Amino acid sequence: MKYMGSKNRIANQILPIILKDRNENQCYIEPFVGGANIIDKVDGNRIGGDKNKYLIEMWKGLQLKKERPHTITKGMYSKARVDYRNNKNESYSDFLIGWIGWMGSFNGRFFDGGYSGHSTGKTKRDYIAEQIRNTEKQIDSVKGVEFIHSSYETLYVPPNSIIYCDPPYKNTKQYDVSKNFDYEKFWNWVKEMSLKGHKVYVSEYIAPSDFQCLWQKQITNSMNQTKTTKPVEKLFTYKNKGMK
Q1: pLDDT in tens, 149-161
Q2: Gap between the Cα atoms of 205 and 10, Å rounded
Q3: Residues 128 and 162 both lie in one domain
Q4: Which of 62, 96, 197, 204 lies 20 to 30 angstroms, CA to CA, from 74?
Q5: Tens of pLDDT along 94-113?
């Protein structure tokens, strides 16, 4: 699924690091599951958490094969956006608000970029149809995932879990639910979970000095249609006292 900050392009490079020495039945957890573009490539016991209730209801509804529209008009999009902004279900359920919002928003930005629709150039593209096809391809791969509506702080983590965090990056554009994200609190939580015996990995551009970078790569980012950047994606872990 197209999702702001998706790690789909680097999944095959970071997952071997994250899953190295994973034990049988060891739980794999993503507290910021987003577009599920990493967790859909992991087998076994999996938990996907996210603070956006509409995102979680969308994934749970897809697991249950709930009916959903495959043509999303601008009128449907506008009604769903009103429900979302008013936190009500006057026109649609939470599942359909999530489905219409993620499938119909420009660049997968969930009611924060306008209605997607079609391209206006020489090459005609139906962006909504593309988003729907890409998302529905993931359904079989996320069948066994336990999707939970929760912040990272309150998400239940079984003992000795592997935790992969893809939080909102510092100094970048955020979704509504991640605005005013407390980075100091987050990194302290990562330390706490690491010291409890969990293996915790974090994708970010920068990290506190007591974290080490395990992997990095320059990535072309074109989520902004008028500006292309080449940030360096990095994968961090906490420097436990026993690490060299």
Answers
A1: 999 999 999 999 9
A2: 14
A3: no
A4: 62
A5: 999 999 999 999 988 899 88
